[in-house]
Amino acid sequence: MHAVIVGAGTFGASLAWQLARAGHSVTLVDQFEPGDRRATSGGETRLIRCSHGADADYTAMARRARTLWRELEHESGEDLLVECGVAWFAHREDGWEAASERTMAAQGIPVERHDAAAVFPSFRADDLAFTLLEPEAGVLRAQRAVQALAAQAAAHGANVVRARARPDGAAARLDDGTRLEGDAVVWACGGWLAPLFPAFVTLKVTRQELLFLDGGPAWRAPGVPGWVDYDHAMYGTADLDALGVKAAHDVEGPPIDPDAELDDTPATEPAVRAYMRRRFPALEYAPLTEARACRYELSPDSHFIAAPHPEHAGVWLLGGGSGHGFKHGPAMAERVITAIAGGAPLPDRFGLGERSPANSLRTAGSGVVS
Ligand SMILES: Cc1cc2nc3c(=O)[nH]c(=O)nc-3n(C[C@H](O)[C@H](O)[C@H](O)COP(=O)(O)OP(=O)(O)OC[C@H]3O[C@@H](n4cnc5c(N)ncnc54)[C@H](O)[C@@H]3O)c2cc1C
Known about the structure:
Mean pLDDT: 96
Bound molecules: flavin-adenine dinucleotide
Order of helices and strands: EHEEHEEHEEEHEEEEEHEEEEHEEEH
Shape: globular
Helix content: 10-25%
Largest sheet: 8 strands, mixed
Radius of gyration: 20 Å
Oligomer: single chain
Structural class: alpha+beta
């Protein structure tokens, strides 16, 4: 098969890697270099965790992705997945975290209730019912991972092209007029997917923020886990690679054009500092070392998009990461390849039809939860 893939983010580059290493002919096109920070996959770090409440399918996909990220590390010689664990702060005995615990236990994924005060250098738990630890979860070096995916795709023979593309019937037309045809043409274009296919894709592109605090040596990974407070829409990581302690207020930010400049002004700093006072008091006044803006591309129900184009055989649309797509890249790619080959179909909820926010992974007041 010859595949043309437009978009070298986690979804497109994963697809290119898997197809190329399976011996297929691949052309991977992106308007930027892989890992560019204007792409949603371009940040330095992303959480990888299996917790998805009662959702067994995303849970299993995240676990499969972990295995595939390890395979990519093995192939590329890169150190991409820092297994520092992820801690979930549960406000109720029977909420999202307890559902995640049951789902993971049923799939044999290590998970335990633990004493978070013993692992975080400063911790307040007076509003929590318990803390759940996924010891084999952690942090992916995202930008480097995407670069490794593209590099390994190239090492297996893929042609990686830097160009902007637009749909031309079943083909992709590059800016210089080149027309790329394939047995499969996959558009994995992140926040640009909806403008390219407005009749079939609904995505809201929003501005999101990441803050980095100087917590000092005590907060360096891998001794300190990543963490998520789902009910308070907050998450973060320890200080990995001297970036600082990462903290994000994970509420939906203002809409932004995918081509707009990203303004790094830290508008969420008051909310993040208020949360630090509540949870990690030693970090309340920690110096802000950096603020980063990036984009989410949110589907109406937070579920991914992976479906054939209704009018052009062989054309597929892939995206809708909705703030939680990074970790799943290689496992989604595996499923998409199977579907393209006529094997197991993708779940209906990844389809192009109407979507209802009522089916969202998010719950009232929660964030997207990366
Ligand atoms: C702040 C933040 C924190 C996040 N945290 C997490 C986390 O902890 N864990 C997690 O799993 N996920 C997380 N996510 C979500 C995750 O990063 C995204 O879901 C995922 O990266 C989306 O990947 P993608 O391949 O769909 O899109 P992208 O990475 O945006 O890739 C799309 C690519 O398509 C290219 N492209 C678009 N249009 C064209 C065109 N016409 N021609 C050529 N090229 C084109 C773009 O240049 C781009 O490189 C986070 C996202 C953000 C913004």
